[in-house]
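> tool_call: predict_assembly(chains=two)
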Amino acid sequence: MRSVSIIGVGLTSFGEHWGKSFRELIAEAGILAIAGCNLEGKDIEAIYGGCMASGRFIGQEHIGALIADQLGVTPIPATRVEAACASGGVALRSGYLAVASGAHDIVAVGGIEKMTEVSTEQAGFALGGAGDQETELFHGATFPSLYALMARKHMKEFGTTEEQMAACAVKNHKNALLNPNAQFHREVSIEDVMKSGYVASPLKLLDCSPITDGAAAVILCETKKARKLCKNPVEIIASTQASDSLALTGRKSLTEMLATKIAAKQAYEHAKLKPKDIDFAEVHDCFTIAEIFAIEDLGFFKKGEGGKATEAGKTGLNGEIPINTSGGLKGKGHPVGATGVAQAVEAFLQLNNAAEKRQVKNANIGLTHNVGGSGATAVVHIYKKIGGKK
Amino acid sequence: MPHSALPLQWRRYPERYYLKGNYCENCKQSFFPARTVCPNCRRKGKLVEKSMPHSGKIVSWTELFVGPFGFEQETPYFLAIVELENGAKALSQIVDSDAKKIKIGAKVKKVFRKISDIDPEGPIAYGYKFKVVG
């Protein structure tokens, strides 16, 4: 397998884009990424686009060809990748494999979701498709309720508190304030979260990531070529993915995500690194409890210690291991198909000292973690700063 | 609209009405709902139909205040993961129970209820829910 690097990134702002359609958003992100590394459309050999539920959100399928068409890069192969909220992460891995295998030298990976053109109820229904339609949704489950079931068990087993979960939301809103592309630019307090009303107990409204429009893109290139083309390539030193039962009832444990643990273990082995070598991470905080699961399952903290570590500020911007410097899904927003790619954009910016006010000092190694559904898909990528042309 | 097509409901009657699942005679594990292949033994597995016990205990629970389509009239309602006496698990609503008694470890038994009535042109969906006993 060949080494693969990111040479360009593009991100739209995240939020309610009433003035822009799906196709405009993905074209905007793609053009930013291609122009950012001084390439032209004709240099792109293939496209992988992550998108979860465009059929339900905007009535449009056949997204791969749509993206190639809108970017003006037909007739190159263009493929949609779907793995619920992990669509972006799996698209990134698909692009990575295409370059690593030697099939292509330069590919564009996009991620997008346009979620605000339907009502909140319809959006909830579209997102429900990430769970098990016949055994979960049928009985009245919603996504917040599935994570609430995990949260309750974690609280019972390890003494995790609602305040500790709230601390994730508080931190991520604080980080989002420093990210110009984030959906929310306002701080929230523990009290705000605690008073925000139950959606599915013990999870409250401010424990949940929002409904968001947005798109992200990265350009991947074989590393030797990347060093010649680009001043600041970021090497992807691990790209791993694992699966688990679609429904929560099929899981061995409700207090860990086995797919995350397995993908992480393989990623650390590939990269020859340990969790303590990671300088910062973007993790999948679709709900605050999901961030606590992630920082435990990725090995940053012992099982059961994630809530306490968050409350103690260990995951803050200047903490032991900064988590979700971008604001995460909670603060930056969660356009589901775009999220996994947007995480890679943040890793690229951090490793290039380009994250402005939210820059992590001495960032050399970063990790991203993207989850589909209630944990049935997990994708982990590890990135390393390398030098390119002068 | 959620998926509640008549053929889907009909296929699921044994599971949703009677807690029918299956059991692998090779590894002795029960599955609910029934699986096509035993995930432990794969082709060496021998799956046979089996009724699940109608009693179990709550593994975890939540109270939903924002329900999906078709459940507006039920909201708020309790949802739980129930571990049946043979170890198989089911996600289900908890009904007819004192809210104070709905907790992890509480014993529950199966009851038969209407699940949702979302499609004015389609069939009403029935199935299992659970209630706390004692």
